[in-house]
Amino acid sequence: MRRAEYWSLVLAGSIVGFVWGANQVALSIYLYDIGLDAAQIGVIYGISTAFMTAGSLIWGYLADLYDRRKLFYILSGASAALTASMASANPSAVAISYIVASFLNRGVVYSAILGDYAKTHGVSNEAFAASSSLSSFFAALGSLSSSITSIGVQGFRALYLLEALVISTSAALLTLTEPTPRVERGAFSLDVRRLRSYWLLKRLIPETLIGLGAGVIIPLFSLWFYLKFHVAMASLSITYTISDLTLALGAMSAPSIAKIFKSRVDAVVVLQAVATALLASMPFISSAEADLALFIARTALMNMANPLLSALINDLTPREERGRMFGLWNTLSNVPRALGPAVGGYLMSAGFIDAPLLITAGLYAIAVVLFKILLGQVEARSASGQ
Q1: Which of 17, 311, 324, 343 is the most exposed place for a label (fewest CB within 10 A)?
Q2: pLDDT score for 121
């Protein structure tokens, strides 16, 4: 395994964390500043998530039919162009560009590419943890860069042009790596019940609750702080930067945590359970500083579980089904996630500022229990070479 190639591959996916980091701070406030209210912003997030869900499913299937790298390059070029067009500051143009860019979701294609390499070299835990950790590091840079928006519309324009450049760089990094050998795709069917990994897909059903809960508050969190505590953009930028850096360190330690628990599933359950408890406590805290600290801890713990779950799914899925499996997994989460922002935005507009957090905590709690029940014994299949 060549280290330079390994890190180029990891960076190709993780560098776009910059885009996510910048948008988590700036996008909802950008839309608010150019004339949309909280309810409209929630609807836009919901529609974009629905489109992202459809894209995940479509590109996941196509990734198992066609050349994964070529598909990644095509989606990257189109995504970069759409992101650059968001610099227009026209509400309709920004909303449409964001929604269509969400549809061109390259994530599942990249996950399949990284998964092929990781499985071949026996480094699934390490590769997905490194990708998640570096993605959080770049998200911190994105969050920090969002402070440029404090100068007004020109700052937002500069930010989205920079995001487009980052997406293009992601595709360029992938060209520096060698593709893994092609495999026979075998019989192809749209019927998910015919997948060899269908047994695993059924056990990932709790992702629907995680997705619904995340949709209710996660894309609106910066707006929640803005409306409840009147936290300034500069302070939000710093908070999200610290949060992403904390997550970067946490994600890199995820394989070690799994070793401590001697189980990736148990590590996921414990991390998400503690994160859920922190989220549930936030509405009852009257200090903005304390809530910002809880937000940082909650975000790190909840998302540290993701690379472990990704690695488990990767190891349990046959290579010829990897694109579809990652696409279907995303679909389980993103279909309900598409409904969440409209609910959260409506509740905030109606004056129920804290309700989205409590709803999300309740959904997360149920999901954590179900994960333990459904996935508790699943790692035995990984050990037996399933």
Answers
A1: 343
A2: 82
